[in-house]
Amino acid sequence: DAKTTQPTSMDCAEGRAANLPCNHSTISGNEYVYWYRQIHSQGPQYIIHGLKNNETNEMASLIITEDRKSSTLILPHATLRDTAVYYCIVRVARGGSEKLVFGKGTKLTVNP
Amino acid sequence: DSGVTQTPKHLITATGQRVTLRCSPRSGDLSVYWYQQSLDQGLQFLIQYYNGEERAKGNILERFSAQQFPDLHSELNLSSLELGDSALYFCASSETGDPYNSPLHFGNGTRLTVT
Known about the structure:
The structure holds 2 protein chains of 2 kinds. Chain A is mainly beta. Helices cover 0% and strands 45% of the residues of chain A.
C-alpha cells in the first residue's frame, strides 16, 4: 500500500487557514489522495479527494504537487469545530479492493 | 449526516457472548465496509461487501462474520466475545461506478463494551 506521512499534531488559530501537509512519495499514477477527519469518536467524515488536479469544495481545498508526491489540505478559515484528527489516505487502485487504509493522522487543534 | 445508519449505538455484553451489529447504507450504495477502531489500533478494515457478495477481507477474526442482505443492509456478527473486542465498529458505504473515485461515507458507529 502507498504509505503516507503526516505530522503527528498541529495547531492553528481560529479564523486562520489551516494547512495540513501529507507526503506520499510512493503513490502510483492511478491512485487517488483522500482526506478524512474524525471528531472525537464520531465516524470518519469525508472531506475531499483528488487524483492530480487541485480540488475545492465547500469544506476545503486540496493542493497536489505536480509530481504527486505530496499534498496539502487547506481549511480556509478554521473554527473550533475543525479540531479533529485528519487522515490523508492514498487509495490503493489494484486487486479489486477498494478499501481505505487509515494511518495515525494529524491531530489538529484550533485555538481561540 | 452521512446517510449511513448503524444500530445499536451502544452495546454492553459479557465475555463469551454473541452480538449482531447492523448497518443500513446510503440509498443506492451497493458497497458496505466494516471497520474496527480500538484505542491502541486505530481504524482497521475488517471486510467489504458489494451487492451481497464478499469483495475484500481485512484483519477480521474467525469469530467475526458478516453478510449483506438483498435489501443491501449489512450485519456484523461477533461471537465468543473477549475483552479485547471492546471497540468502536464503523460501517461505511460507497456509490457504484468508479470504485476508487467514490468516497466512503461512514456511520457514527456502534460502541461495543465487553465486560
